Amino acid sequence: MHIRKYDAGFSRRQFLERTAKGVVAAGVLQPLWPLIANAQDTAKAYPEELQSIDAYTKGKIKTGDIVDAGNVDIVKDLLDPITFKQIKEMGRRIKIVKTATDPLVLNSNKYLEATVRNAGKAKLDGAGNVVTQDGKRWIGGNPFPNAKTGEEVYANLSLSWGRNDVGFYALRDCDISPSGEIAYKYDFCWVEQNVAGLTSDPNKPYLEGFDDMLRFQTVFFSSPNDVRGTSFLSNHFYDQSKFPDLFGYLPAFKRERRFPTNQRFEPLVPGLTLFLSDAWHAGDPMLTWGNYKIVDTKPHLAAAGSNWHGDRPGWEPEVHGGPKGISFYEYEYELKPEVLVIDSEPTGYPRAPVGKRRTYVDVRNMQGLVSNTYDRRGELWKLVEAPYGRYERNGKTVKDGNGEVVWSVQSCMAHDIQSNRLSRFYMAEEIGGGYKPSWNSGNLYEQFLTIQAIRRLGSS
């Protein structure tokens, strides 16, 4: 039987063959990375079946349609198992939008510029850390934009979590109980500052004075009153085999304390299902995990970059689904033409409750889309999902300290399907304590990212 070159199964056969051979080569019709490097439309790299849900499903689902329990089986192969379960059994729905193809929409502009500028300058040293060809710390952007291995993919995720040099995230959280009701509500700030691989100024890839560090990160709670001032500080070393220093300030005890490494697999406050280890699908240094393996290459349905709701009061997304109709955010999804599925294991944490993490990564920007974790028995445990994109909607925009339209994480859902507890939080316009989000707006180290700072935050 004659098989047409670009029939409906052509791309899938290509992906299966590559995965079986251990070959990673982004793009189907032509290499993807040269298109992105020249700011050309990524559509040139893929046949129609990978760019249009209409073509992929032969019209059974179309752009603009809602996927719910009644039709989700049509696209089961395009979803991770927990998202499928949410839609099939728990009342979640998603809206399909057109696939974005502009590299400037798919990436933070400064970060993309640095990725293009520094392409080919990275390598993994003998210990597995990313360095430049002359052995220095990384100088900005994705070190491996055309990654060939699971380790290289995770290097892209690990060296710059939020794709901004400095991020001050003001987040409003609701923790949903198994009965579908709000069990806890928190306002908290997530502050991170990279000190290596900076992209705002091509001539200044490092923040002086921190030669052995990669980033500093603080999370502190501003409401309700019973947790206000609770703060945690993580100091991440550039050597990705070193465990972060983790300090916390607990207002009830009026002192800070050092926490053990396994605290990264526990909730910071009651009800929160996102652990420090889960953050950005790469919350721990990449060399404290191991056995990285690309297990699949596939098209995938995942959150689009259009899920910032700056045209709504406080930027709050709408919710739906679950027993009380408030469990899930309303997300717009798009067909991602090529996604790498990466398995990894917490080899450096013998008491970790996680057995395996499976992460879905968009090759067009090397950004994590969703991850599923499995417990030590091999049972599905938790989903972490977070859309990233530009902060622009219906004429409203937010700009960063460089004058660029913000490209950042927009919200997050972390669903423990074993207990059926779910945390969802979004980037709010303002939270308790008067905190507002900002990006690349000055040095936040002294104010938020030292032991003295978290002590001050907890005492205020």
Describe the structure in your own words.
This protein has a 16-stranded mixed beta sheet that branches. A two-stranded antiparallel sheet has the order 3-4. Strands 12-13 form a two-stranded antiparallel ribbon. The chain has a domain at 155-459: Clam (outer membrane lipoprotein receptor (LolB), chain A), CATH 2.50.20.10. It has nine helices and 24 strands. The protein is an alpha+beta fold. The termini are far apart. It comes from Zavarzinia aquatilis. InterPro entries: DUF1329, TAT_signal, TAT_signal_bac_arc. This is DUF1329 domain-containing protein.
Low-confidence stretches: none
The CATH class label of the domain at 155-459 is Mainly Beta
Number of strands: 24
What is the CA-CA span between the terminal residues? 75 Å
Largest sheet: 16 strands, mixed
Shape: globular
Number of helices: 9
**Structural classification:** alpha+beta
How much helix is in the residues?
10-25%
Q: What fraction of the residues are assigned to beta strands by DSSP?
A: 25-35%
CATH topology of the domain at 155-459: outer membrane lipoprotein receptor (LolB), chain A
> So what's the oligomer here?
single chain
- Please state the second-level CATH architecture of the domain at 155-459: Clam
| Mean pLDDT rating | 93
Output the CATH homologous superfamily of the domain at 155-459.
Lipoprotein localisation LolA/LolB/LppX
Radius of gyration: 21 Å
Organism: Zavarzinia aquatilis
Pfam family, one: DUF1329
Protein name: DUF1329 domain-containing protein
